[in-house]
Structure formats: structure tokens, C-alpha cells
């Protein structure tokens, strides 16, 4: 965890997103890369691969990968990594799949990852529909679309004969979305065979100009309200946990949070009750609170905790507790550290330069991604765009724009970041 | 449907539950039945069958029968009806199972039914556990415990050689609980092969002294709240249907209803959302409103409808509607008629006399049972107790008391009602 003073500096950076000019060596190195013949071959490879990438996005989207249910998609992606010619292709115990592209040995290990999981629950129809210039399907963008881009990176590097100093571990990881709570990353950095050897981390997500160097912290809870339950007519008048939950939800929805440092909250899932004519014996909701500032996140946490007792007390006062009172259980289901990779760290400078030189408008931002975990460990990490523009992420009408030229242009910038981070062998 | 003046008289009866003295002919007939040698044999048959009944309750409880999923239990019960020696044993198109015990032809058709379905959703563990003098399991009482009692009635009638004037159709029916909305009864009375031929109807439910001659009316709705959804962090600030639903739920919970005529309401099931870090695009709740008085039920209905627009408007005002507003859909999922069988109708008098002469304390009451449907058609109907005492109906800790003597005593009274209603052949 970063000290508090550093967290404040994250907020300061976010307050004025820098269209940072790459400085000195980094800029020169990246300009040289862009000007090289090899990089031009790599760019052409990406362009030639576009249709294949889109086809692979469809294939992978249609293999559902709900949180904790990524295994089938992981198995398919593992075979794709193998087919791309990596070595040491394997799945780890947590369910991440990965393979190495060996470098010349002059640099430390770089991980380039996209996450396998989507937010959508089991049973969601993920059939991809083409409508105009869009592919439509739950999860088609976040983060399924990035998985084939990693494969295209590998093919482009090979076609261009680019040798990097660092080994690059390409990975499809599990548990990035809500309930997964970064379990893929926790395993990779704290337990897996590459533990202690990873010097830099790049997460690829849909997007273009934004370089995520701030990790938004989050606290997530499942709050369960329990009561005696009973027959809706015969036991009418007994306390009902649904009313206590509703009361808490209304109060939660009144929370005031600052726009800057960005701080948010959400009721995500509500559930409970057995039938229309039974007083529920249990209802539950999950809530998500986030901030780029640890202090604001702590305030949200305190606010949530302050509203639960009164909400439950009001229900216990409003109806009969003769058969039992309403009680609640607060269960922490997600706890992502606030993290930061400073703007002057080489990895951030490389990513910013790659976009600026490629013709984009780089912006630093904060988000909650796989990079939070390495950031919290002090390991340089950024989340960069795959080149694809997507819309309505996490909504059932999620969609991915098919604008070949712009996508390839930005995809090329991200490949430049990967190469820059891994270093070109002389 | 009964005229409104009659509904008021139901309320009047309910206001002063009558420990009615059976009058004249009915009392004499029932006393003669109780004094007969044949009835004594029938009583001994019920007593001898007690352990078998308890064993069959366990067997049937452990075959789950969620609403619309009664088929497996129905098939098992059909075989039990067949084994009990009935004729014309069959399942109808709706899923009810039934068989005839032929009478001598002097009386009109009597139906004696217990319902197959429970309130518990698929996947509920219905393994029966014995604890002290109780059998514990979801659904063990309501109404599973009545199904074997009907079988014991048939065996007792046969053993005693009792011949009735009316044919008796014994039935395990579907769709009594909430979502079923009396579909079994609707089919039986409006479509099935016995349509137009049923003169009297007896529903058997757990219980002892109470004779249900008033059908509590109900209105049930599923209310779905929809919004644009989105990423909890990226799209923070958009309207969230969970808050609109919570607002409506809090207002619903403030509804004032009279204790007399008895009027109730309930939020039964809440659901919605896809993940903790997504703004839900849809949440829903089911509500149940009941009254023995049609006017009070209409007031509840109007109250519910009055709170939805303001709740949705408050959410649309509280957060951004830039990506879409919250809207709601109100869907009627249950509509049970208020019904009544007058206290001076022979069937009611027989049931009251059977309990009084048997040593119980008969009370008239209103409830929402299969009898609502025939009552609403003007067909004499009552719901009587099986003799079993159960507790915590519709709750996961539902249980059934094993007090052999009292159970058999009351079971015998209910058999007397069945015989009295069908009439003993001379």
C-alpha cells in the first residue's frame, strides 16, 4: 500500500489529466521504433490481421465467461496462445492461462494481460449480432476484444522479427470483474511461479487515448438481511427484511460524494425471498464503492456502516418482532487497493509517448483494473487501450465499433508500448 | 362472483367467528354417523394408518414440487391413488392427478383435494429431519401432509365398507401457491372433463378446528424497474432502478390496512442486477395484497398504483437520465376472487358439526385456498383441516407436529365431513 501523501498526489494528477509531452530519451527511443522498418512490418501485420481479430472476438465472446466460470473460455484461449507460438504455455491453479515469448535475456519480465471474465451471469445469451458498424453482445468489448489483440501482437512481433530484451508473458487472466476481486492477479503476483520476477505489468482493455496509471480503490459488500419469514397472510404484520433493505438502499442512494477526487457508489445486485406469498426470511444486496482517494473511500465505507443499524431498527419498530427481529450481516466481498504508477516511471512515459507519436491524444486516468494489484505492490503497471472502441460496457447492449483504420492505428500504438517496455534487443 | 352485499356478510361472520351449534337435521345425521359401527371401523383404520401416513409424508416431501414443477410428485401421487383402489385414475392436461371412488349414484359429484405444490423454489433442500416430536422440512406441512391423509380416508372408507351416494373424486392438484394462481382449480372447474358436474368441493390443508368458508381475495403483481444500466464507476451518476424500487418498497411498507376485515400485503421476492460493479438495467419485486373484503382489496390496489410513478420520478430527478430514464412495468401475476360459502349451506354445517361432535371447537374463517375458485363460481366449497398441526408454513423452518392421538382425532372429524358431504347410502 502506498502512503497517504502519495495517494494525494494521485488525486492531484487526476485533477489535471496531463497531455504529457514525452521527454528526452523515451521520446527518442519511441520515435526510432516508429521509424524502423521492422515496426512497419509489425503494423502491416496488425492491419492484415484485423478480420481475423474480429472473427476471434466473436468466437471468444460466444464462450461465456462469468466470474468464476472462465474455465471454458480459458481453455480455448490457451490453445490460441499455443497456436501463436509461445513457449511455456500453461494454466495456473487459479485459472489464468499464459505463455512466454522469450527475449534475449537483457531485461526483466514483462507481463501483458487481458482478462477472460465478463460481468454477465451464467445463462446470459452472448451470441454476437452484427448491426451496421457494430458487433453487439454482452461482454464483446470488456475485455473479450483484447484477448485476440494480444495474439495479433505476438504474430506481428514474429512477422517483423522483433526481438525484445525482456521475456514477455502473454496472459488471459481470471477474476478482474467485481466478484473475482482480482483473484487472477493476486495469484500471479503472490503465489504463482512468476511471483517476485515480474518487473512491469501492462493490462490491455478496450480504449484508445487513455493510459491508466491510477488504480481506483474499491470496497464491495454483500449485505444480507434476515428475519423470521412466514406466510404473507397468516403471518402478516411480522417484520420483513425486504423493507429494511429498501430503507438502507434509499439512504445509500442519498450519499454525497465528490466528483473530484472521483468517488462513486452502486447497488449492483438485489435478491431474496422464496415466493410472492411468503414474507422473505432473507434478502441481500451487493454494493460497490470506489474512489481514487483512500480518504474518500474510507468516508464512503463509514457512511454505509452508519445507515444499516438505523434502517434495521426502523423495520423492527414498524412491524412485529414476535417471531424474531431483522438482523443483517455485512460481508466484505471485494477490497481493491488504491494504487498508482507515477507519471515519471518509464512505463508510463513509454505508453504516453507511444500514443503521442502515433497521433493520439494521450491522457492519464484512474480506473479499477488488473493493474491495481501490481500498483499496490509498487510494481510499475499501466492499463492501456486495445485500439477497439466499445460502448455500454457492463450493460446488456454492450457493443464494439468496427472502424478498421482507427482501430488498427491505435492497436499499433499499444504494440509500440509493449515493445518499448520490453526493450528492443540491439 | 358474489354481489358486494354478500361480501359484507362474510366480513360480519368473520368479525365474530361462530362456534356454531349445528342445527337440526345435519346434527342428527352427523351424530348417527359418529355412532355407527362402520364409522368406528373407519376411525380405527385411520389410527392404524398413522405411521404409514407419516412415512408417506416424508416420501412426498422429499420429492420437491415447486410451483409449475409438480410433475414428479404428481406422478408419485398418481400411483398412490391407483394403489388405494380408485377408478378412473388419471392426470389432466394441467397436471392435476385424480381418481374416483364410485358412489351408489344418488348424489352429485364431490371433490376432495389437497394441493401438490409448495412455495419453495427449485433447488430447495427438502430432506425431512426428525427433531423431537417434529418433522422438519420446507413444505412438510403445507400441503404435502394432506396428500397421504386423503389416501388414508380412502382406505378407511373401504375397510369400513362405507358406501356413499355421491361419487368422490380424490385429487392432488397443482398451482395452489402464489405463482400457480389456482391454475389447477381453474382447469378443473372451467375446462376439465368434470367441468359442470362438481356440486361440492372440499380442500384439505393442515389444521384442526377451522372451517374456511370465506375465500380471501388477492392481487399479485410483478413490478419491473428498468433503466439504462452501465459501469458502476464509468457510468456513475446514471439512474439506478434499484433505488426506484427501494423507494417504492419503502412507500409500500407504509400502507395502512384494517385488521378487520382482514387485509394484508407483502413484498415477496426481490431480484435484479448482473454484478456488483454494474448499475442494474433491471430489478423487480413481487407483491401480494389480500383482503376478505373486495373494497379493501381495491383500496390496496389503488395505493400500490399511486406510489409507483412518484418513486420512479424521484429517482429520475435524483440522478442523470442522459442515457435513459427509469421506467416500470406492472404485471398482474395473480388475481384470486373474493369468495364465500354461506354458513347455512349444508357443506359448511356438516363440517362444523363434524368438529363439534368430534370434540373440537369449530370456527369459521377466511383464507386463500383452492376453495376460492369454486366459491367464486357459487359452488359450495370449504377448506378443512387434515388433523395435522403444522408451524412456520412458507418458512424454511416449516415443521409438522407428531402428536398421534390428537392428529388421528381431528383426522377422523374431517373424514366425517367427507362422508357427510357425500351422503351415506341407505
Automatic annotation (TrEMBL), chains A, B:
Domain of life: Bacteria
InterPro entries from the UniProt entry: Bact_exopeptidase_dim_dom (IPR036264), Peptidase_M20 (IPR002933), Peptidase_M20_dimer (IPR011650), Peptidase_M20A (IPR050072)
Signal sequence, start to end: 1-20
Pfam family, one: Peptidase_M20
GO molecular function term, any single one: metal ion binding
Keyword terms of this UniProt record: Hydrolase, Metal-binding, Signal
All copies of domain Peptidase M20 dimerisation, residue ranges: 217-311
Name assigned to this protein: M20/M25/M40 family metallo-hydrolase
Gene source species: Sphingomonas lycopersici
Upper lineage: Bacteria, Pseudomonadati, Pseudomonadota, Alphaproteobacteria, Sphingomonadales
Amino acid at each position: 500500500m502506498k502512503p497517504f501523501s502519495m495517494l494525494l498526489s494521485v488525486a492531484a494528477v487526476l485533477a489535471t489529466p496531463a497531455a504529457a509531452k514525452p521527454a528526452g530519451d523515451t521520446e527518442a527511443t519511441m520515435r526510432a521504433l516508429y521509424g524502423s522498418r521492422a515496426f512497419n512490418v509489425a503494423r502491416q501485420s496488425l492491419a492484415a490481421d484485423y478480420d481475423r481479430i474480429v472473427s476471434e472476438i466473436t468466437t471468444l465472446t460466444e464462450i461465456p465467461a462469468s466470474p468464476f466460470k472462465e474455465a471454458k473460455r480459458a481453455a480455448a484461449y490457451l490453445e490460441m496462445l499455443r497456436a501463436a507460438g509461445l513457449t511455456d504455455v500453461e494454466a495456473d491453479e487459479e485459472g489464468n492461462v499464459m505463455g512466454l515469448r522469450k527475449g534475449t535475456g537483457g531485461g526483466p519480465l514483462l507481463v501483458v494481460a487481458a482478462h477472460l471474465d465478463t460481468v454477465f451471469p451464467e445463462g446470459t445469451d452472448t451470441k454476437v449480432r452484427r448491426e451496421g458498424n457494430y458487433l453487439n453482445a454482452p461482454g464483446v468489448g470488456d475485455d473479450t476484444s483484447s484477448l485476440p489483440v494480444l495474439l495479433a501482437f505476438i504474430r506481428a512481433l514474429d512477422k517483423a522479427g522483433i526481438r525484445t530484451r525482456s521475456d514477455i508473458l502473454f496472459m488471459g487472466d481470471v477474476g478482474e470483474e467485481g466478484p473475482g476481486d482480482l483473484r487472477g492477479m493476486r495469484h500471479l503476483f503472490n503465489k504463482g511461479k512468476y511471483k517476485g520476477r515480474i518487473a512491469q505489468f501492462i493490462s490491455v482493455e478496450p480504449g484508445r487515448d487513455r493510459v491508466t496509471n491510477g488504480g481506483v480503490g474499491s470496497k464491495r459488500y454483500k449485505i444480507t438481511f434476515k428475519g423470521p419469514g412466514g406466510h404473507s397472510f397468516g403471518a402478516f404484520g411480522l417484520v420483513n427484511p425486504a423493507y429494511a433493505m429498501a430503507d438502507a438502499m434509499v439512504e445509500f442512494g442519498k450519499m454525497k460524494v465528490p466528483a473530484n477526487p472521483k468517488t462513486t457508489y452502486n447497488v449492483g445486485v438485489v435478491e431474496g425471498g422464496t415466493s410472492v406469498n411468503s414474507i422473505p426470511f432473507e434478502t441481500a444486496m451487493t454494493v460497490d464503492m470506489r474512489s481514487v482517494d483512500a480518504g474518500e473511500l474510507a468516508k464512503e465505507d463509514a457512511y454505509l456502516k452508519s445507515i444499516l443499524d438505523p434502517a434495521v431498527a426502523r423495520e423492527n419498530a414498524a412491524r412485529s418482532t414476535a417471531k424474531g427481529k431483522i438482523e443483517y450481516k455485512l460481508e466484505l466481498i471485494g477490497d481493491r487497493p488504491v494504487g498508482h504508477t507515477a507519471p515519471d516511471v518509464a512505463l508510463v512515459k513509454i505508453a504516453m509517448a507511444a500514443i503521442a507519436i502515433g497521433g493520439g491524444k494521450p491522457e492519464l486516468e484512474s480506473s479499477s483494473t488488473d493493474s491495481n494489484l501490481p500498483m499496490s505492490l509498487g510494481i510499475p503497471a499501466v492499463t492501456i487501450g486495445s485500439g477497439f472502441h466499445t460502448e455500454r460496457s457492463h450493460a446488456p447492449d454492450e457493443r464494439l465499433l468496427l472502424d478498421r483504420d482507427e482501430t488498427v492505428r491505435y492497436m499499433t500504438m499499444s504494440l509500440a508500448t509493449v515493445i518499448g517496455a520490453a526493450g528492443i534487443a540491439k
